[in-house]
Amino acid sequence: MAASVQSAVQSVDWKSAEMAAKRKSRYAAEGRLKIYGLVAIAIALGFLAFLLTSLTYTGHKAFTQSMVTIELDLSAAGVDKNKVMDADWRKITREALLVYGGDIPRRDQKQYFSMFTDQAAYLVRDEVIADPSKLIGKQSFTVPLSDPADQFAKGEINRDTPEDQRRISNKQIEYFDAMVAKGVISRPFNWGLIFNSDSRFPELAGLAGAIAGSFWSLAVCLAISLPTGIAAAIYLEEFAPKNRWTDLIEVNINNLAAVPSIIFGLLGLAVFLGWFGLPRSAPLVGGLVLSLMTLPTLIITTRNSLKSVPSSIREAALGVGASKHEAIFHHILPLAMPAVMTGTIISLARALGETAPLLLIGMNAFITSEPGGVMDAATALPTQIYIWADSPERGFVARTSAAILVLLGFLIVMNGIAIYLRQRFERRW
Predict the structure, then answer these.
(1) What domains can be seen in the chain, in order of their start residue?
(2) Going by C-beta distance under 8 Å and a sequence separation of 6 or more, which residues neighbour residue 82?
(3) What tens digit of pLDDT does each residue of 321-351 get?
């Protein structure tokens, strides 16, 4: 048989025109395959670029906030440092704002004051409470403009649009132009987007509560899924007998890794809220649900990491007298730990972006303060984006895109850490 094959090969004229045509056809097919791959990559990168460009174009204006600077002499206004809460802050703030409006008739003052956030008086009060030195002498305070005025300042509202078709009147435009001429309007970086909690007023709404809620949820998820996942993987890989029961367990773990996340949300709603009676909207419940979702992936990743360690290391440890658990915990697991940590971070990054399970357990409530622990009511970054996307105010459109960019930033950082750990500590055999 071998002789006949060798004879057939030798009888082929490799320099003939027929063979040259076949080689050319094969090379052409290979070239087309490369082109198809490059086109696929270009399309994927194009969609990614379109997504990021669209989000940046829509959300970049939310990273700045139009502010008006007012001058207050609180000592002259008679504010007692021992009775700060009793002062008429609304009156004090409005009198300072009227300085820039001039002699405004009483019937027009409602339009004028609506150009500034409705919470201006409380913002000034809280700033004074945080820094009592502002009670002495003339001090400067910055107050955010209301959402319509802020949109107008950012060019989202065209002054040439008929008055009945825009959210800001001609008189308000005159007042705004007068304040611009006096140099009291500014657009600094909107730190409130990061350090404020949620609010019904777009100019004051921020992500601090959602970031804290995501942190507590991921902390609970990590505390449960990491030790449980590693222990389960070690048992299945190193100790469990190979029979139909372990095969059934492995099949179910693989299937759970592909279950839609909303199913885990339904499970958390029925078990943690229904049977156990845990508080709704709490990061504890969110972390428990996310840990159920990440456990299958973490178990599979850890098992693959343990398999990647050469068997010679295990055999050498056992050969010098180490017990099985000593070989695992002193030799195999430390060598597999970089890959385990990489898989853990990637699993947490996936959990950070999950929305459906958190919606089902109520982490989409309107929360105006940061959670102080795992039992306090909270939202998370994905659910906060969902809440803002469902809000009718125009100012939340830009804030929704900005929140998505913040979430993408966290995901990129977490994946970057995973890549660094893999490249820094991974052993190649």
Answers:
(1) 63-190 (no CATH), 208-425 (1.10.3720.10)
(2) none
(3) 888 888 888 888 888 888 888 888 888 888 9
